[in-house]
Amino acid sequence: MTSLDTTAVPPTVLARPAGTAGTLDARAVSAWFGDRKVLEQVSLLMPAGQVTALIGPSGCGKSTFLRILNRMHELIPGATLAGEVLLDGADIYAPERRLTAARRDIGMVFQKPNPFPAMSIYDNVVAGLKLTGVRASRPEKDQLVEECLTKAGLWREVQDRLRQPGGALSGGQQQRLCIARSLAVRPKILLMDEPCSALDPTSTRRIEQTVRELVHEVTIVIVTHNMQQAQRVSDQCAFFLAEQGTPGAIVEHGPTEAMFSTPVDQRTSDYVNGRFG
Ligand SMILES: Nc1ncnc2c1ncn2[C@@H]1O[C@H](COP(=O)(O)OP(=O)(O)OP(=O)(O)O)[C@@H](O)[C@H]1O
């Protein structure tokens, strides 16, 4: 290594400043499970610093689309896809791009809170660093744990018991711990797949509040079946539909307020007003 060879030393995650939300641009994304096509030419721009809600009836491909956005779809046996996903202009599926880079830049929070139950709250937060090969000193970790738990709205509740297991927290707290864990690698995008569906109304509102607080520094894409939630948290919505055995596609997308008050397509109007789905 020469003194000019900066590429040989990967910058640490901790060197990346917080507040670097990215733009995701899905272009003509199609998806298959075996020979069954489940998504048809889905294109959607998810702008930096905004919350995009993916709405639509069960089975229309929202979760599949979300998994394509951080390269989790390809892990499912028999699953294939076509199209492009650009993160700040660079295709996350480009052959030279490493899978771990996509995962680091694009975090995911799942429907069911999935902290490592026996691991301490502190270790849960820093777990992602190890998985993405990043070393951090103890003071750096201490700082990161406080920062991420604060951003996830959990610090005040757990600051005195950081060494207790993550599994001992309530469901809502566990979900906020998972959000903190995702934030620890400083992602540019956070994908959330029905993050509140297993939570009570109070925990749900707390997560929604967290989403709004976070969006200034991380772009959020959230799947939700809850139309009130979509209206409360999102800046724009995309309505997915898979009609009569056809693959899922976006019927309409746009600013959330317009999608709910003046939808262009009758099917959108029927769905957001609870007439089907
Ligand atoms: N692992 C899989 N293997 C085969 N088919 C799958 C798999 N996962 C999903 N599918 C199918 O792909 C289609 C889209 O499913 P997906 O879970 O993306 O829809 P969704 O809109 O997220 O549904 P829900 O709102 O119920 O979560 C469905 O027909 C589903 O049965």
UniProtKB/TrEMBL annotation:
The gene is pstB. GO terms for biological process: phosphate ion transmembrane transport. Residues 24-272 form the ABC transporter domain. One of its GO terms (cellular component) is membrane. PROSITE patterns: ABC_TRANSPORTER_1, ABC_TRANSPORTER_2. GO terms for molecular function: ATP binding; ATP hydrolysis activity; phosphate transmembrane transporter activity. It comes from Kitasatospora indigofera. CDD domains: ABC_PstB_phosphate_transporter. Keywords: ATP-binding, Nucleotide-binding, Translocase, Transport. The keyword DNA repair does not apply. This is Phosphate import ATP-binding protein PstB. InterPro entries: AAA+_ATPase, ABC_transporter-like_ATP-bd, ABC_transporter-like_CS, P-loop_NTPase, PstB-like. It comes from the Bacteria. Gene3D superfamilies: P-loop containing nucleotide triphosphate hydrolases.
